From TrEMBL:
InterPro entries linked to this entry: Poly_Biosynth_Transport, Polysacc_synth
Taxonomic classification: Bacteria, Pseudomonadati, Pseudomonadota, Gammaproteobacteria, Alteromonadales
The protein's name: Lipopolysaccharide biosynthesis protein
Transmembrane segments: 7-29, 35-57, 78-100, 112-130, 142-164, 176-197, 218-240, 252-273, 293-311, 323-342, 358-378, 384-404, 416-434, 440-458
Membrane topology category: Multi-pass membrane protein
Record's subcellular location: Cell membrane
Pfam families given in the database record: Polysacc_synt
Superkingdom, taxonomy of origin: Bacteria
Keywords: Cell membrane, Membrane, Transmembrane, Transmembrane helix
Cell membrane recorded as keyword: yes
Length: 475
């Protein structure tokens, strides 16, 4: 992959994150805290839709793409069933909206309108997911990036319009803005992928039963683990609302939105690395090449954490005073995308060996850790408790993924991975309870320690590259 292509892939996540960061303070200033909290509920629901309602077939599409001789047959195999399941799910939401309002933690007076908005957003999310995969696997990085930027830009334009035109600043208005941007983006993606969609939906194409079996065998085990992973990613928002209120959720969601800047690295990495790992394995790449990716990813994420740890107080300049707790939450909130991204490098053994069923115990362990801590910490520490439980769950997720992967595939070095990530984890928790000048000194100490550790690991990796015969001996 040349530099130009890599820059095109990076353009979308970087620009989308930058625009999203501009939208966060605007959203906080224009809408009340409870409306911001409702947007967080919507985003959490859409994340679940992308993980569960796709039935894992989106991952099967990526896994089988390079091996499939007929791409139309492959897309039909992965698209029709999730589309039907999503349509049925949205229909059930609309029919039983009054009973489901409590499950979604929605205000009862607005439940009908909000459920309708949620249903449209869910259906659009699933369709967009498959369209984006077509564009991604066809290696059209600039178009993919533009589709990532467009909804963020529309939201950024819509929020000032609501403010200056004097429109209703309620939860309905806030969620409508996000859904409207998503629908426009999905419609454009459908147009760009119209040939594939028409072929899958209307042309008579002979199905490949063996391919269908492989798609189901790889994808379906990911459904339950995907549902649990969604719970792991979103439980904090629902439990925080349950033990506290939508205003606490609103403040917490602003911290998560600022932390989402780190997902730039996650999105770029997932877009580029996931398809490439199968190519490298097919070409017989050595374990050192995979280890190099792990260490380089750790380096990038650790640097991002250090910068956020040092400069997190600057967020207070851009948000109302009632969001002051965001400064303490931010270093904790970035751990979710940090650990998830790093685990994408260490999970290669599970993906390459096609043993996706191992993801189920991984996510169960992580969710158990996270929920137990949430039940204990949220009632007392509210937003801080939610952030600690979320970070703890994803730390457990990263370690479980790593340990299973290196046992069923090839052993690779983990000492520095675990040491650096543990330092990051405990320092993020500690800084939430430090005050005054001690906090500044603590941040300097942590940053210096991490820099020294990473420097030593880079030197060690270079030595292993010169002596590849020691790959299997790496602890």
């Amino acid at each position: 992959m040349n530099l130009k292509t890599l820059l095109y892939y990076a353009l979308g996540p970087v620009a989308a994150a930058a625009i999203g960061l501009l939208s966060v303070p605007l959203l906080a200033w224009v809408f009340p805290v409870d409306a911001v909290g409702m947007v967080a509920i919507l985003n959490a629901t859409l994340t679940g839709a992308a993980l569960v309602l796709t039935l894992g077939f989106d991952q099967s599409y990526v896994r089988e793409f390079h091996d499939a001789s007929n791409k139309v047959v492959l897309f039909r195999s992965v698209f029709i069933v999730p589309l039907s399941v999503t349509a049925l799910f949205c229909l059930l939401l609309l029919v039983f909206h009054t009973k489901l309002a409590d499950w979604f933690l929605l205000p009862k007076d607005d439940s009908s309108k909000l459920i309708t908005i949620f249903s449209i957003a869910i259906f659009s999310t699933v369709i967009f997911r498959f369209n984006s995969l077509i564009i991604r696997m066809q290696e059209r990085p600039l178009i993919l990036s533009l589709l990532q930027i467009l909804p963020k830009a529309l939201i950024l334009l819509a929020i000032p319009i609501v403010f200056f035109k004097g429109f209703d600043k309620s939860s309905i208005s806030a969620t409508f803005i996000f859904t409207f941007a998503l629908v426009i983006n999905t419609a454009l993606a459908c147009y760009l992928c119209r040939h594939e969609l028409i072929s899958a939906l209307f042309l008579k194409v002979k199905s490949d039963q063996n391919l269908d079996k492989r798609v189901k065998r790889f994808g379906l085990p990911l459904v339950l683990s995907g549902a649990i992973l969604w719970c792991l990613s979103s439980f904090d928002r629902f439990l925080l609302t349950y033990f506290s209120d939508l205003e606490s959720l609103g403040r917490y969601s602003v911290a998560l939105s600022f932390a989402s800047a780190v997902t730039i690295l996650q999105q770029i990495f997932s877009t580029v690395w996931t398809p490439q790992v199968y190519k490298l394995n097919k070409e017989g790449a050595s374990i050192v090449q995979f280890e190099k990716v792990m260490i380089n990813t750790l380096l990038g994420l650790a640097v991002a954490y250090i910068l956020i740890l040092i400069f997190s107080p600057a967020t207070a300049w851009f948000i109302p005073k009632e969001y002051s707790v965001v400064v303490l939450l931010l270093p904790l909130c970035v751990l979710q995308p940090l650990y998830f991204t790093l685990s994408e490098t260490t999970v290669i053994g599970i993906n390459i060996s096609r043993k996706s069923h191992y993801m189920l115990p991984v996510t169960i362990v992580a969710l158990t850790v996270a929920v137990l801590l949430a039940v204990i910490l949220i009632p007392k520490y509210k937003e801080v408790g939610a952030a600690i439980s979320l970070a703890s769950g994803f730390f457990a997720f990263f370690m479980a993924r790593t340990e299973i992967s290196r046992r069923i595939w090839k052993p690779f070095g983990v000492k520095k991975l675990y040491t650096v990530t543990a330092v990051i984890y405990f320092s993020a928790i500690a800084q939430a309870f430090f005050v005054g000048e001690y906090l500044v000194l603590f941040k300097i100490f942590v940053s210096t320690t991490l820099i020294i550790m990473l420097k030593n690991e880079i030197i060690g990796l270079k030595k292993r590259e010169k002596n590849p015969s020691s790959d299997d001996k790496t602890p």
